[in-house]
């Protein structure tokens, strides 16, 4: 009776077979199992389709535990897991510049955006096989054990963030509270709103109200109404106005 293979490509030696070579086969099987448990493979994608294959009795890309995709496929790349009757968990790291969609059969697929990582499970259900996003179901208890208190909805706000590490590190050391940061929320440049910060407009004018603004130019402080200067104070303290001066005391 000839040997058979599991869906994961591990050779099952039949009774009485390979009497002098079974050790070699066993060693190969152990290496393949190690590949399934801890193997890491990097795959460069050059087109919009790719087959992640697990070959019987031999090292193959599809058997590795961690799959790192790189390259420029030119569009969303559909990666088909073969064979479709193999149950498998993959740690998928998408370092390519396009979305990678994993499929095993006519069931559900899982898409991994560029620069993202997911843990997926292939159910091995044959022609109707599906791929499930395991990482998408991590519960709050798992996150709490990592010290994370944000909800899944709050964490999903980060999905698609393009800020660099250096840009994010600008926040390092910030001690402002949420209330203090919210003073900036909705504060349009050149406007004044209750309980909001005041931001100079494109001309560098700081608004004092709906029409009044104050700004400095050439060492002179100007007071303007609707964009027209009405008074100014120079560095020597001289006051110049465009209209009348009314005083209740000595001038």
What does this structure look like?
This protein has a five-stranded mixed β-sheet, with no helix packed on it. A five-stranded antiparallel β-sheet has the order 12-13-14-15-16, with no helix packed on it. It has 251 residues and is of the alpha/beta class. It starts with a strand and ends in a 10-residue tail after the last strand. The chain contains five helices and 16 strands. It has two domains: 4-137, no CATH class; 177-241, no CATH class.
**SSE ordering:** EEHEEEEEEEEEHHHHEEEEE
Radius of gyration: 33 Å
Counted by DSSP, the helix tally is: 5
Largest sheet: 5 strands, mixed
Query: What's the count of strands?
Result: 16
Low-confidence stretches: none
Amount of beta strand:
25-35%
Estimate percent helicity: 10-25%
Distance linking N and C termini: 117 Å
Q: What is the approximate shape?
A: rod-shaped
Name the quaternary structure: single chain
Structural domain tally: 2
Instruction: Give the strand order of the largest sheet, numbering strands 1, 2, ... along the chain.
Output: 3-5-7-10-11
- Average of per-residue pLDDT values: 87
Which structural class should the secondary elements be placed in? alpha/beta
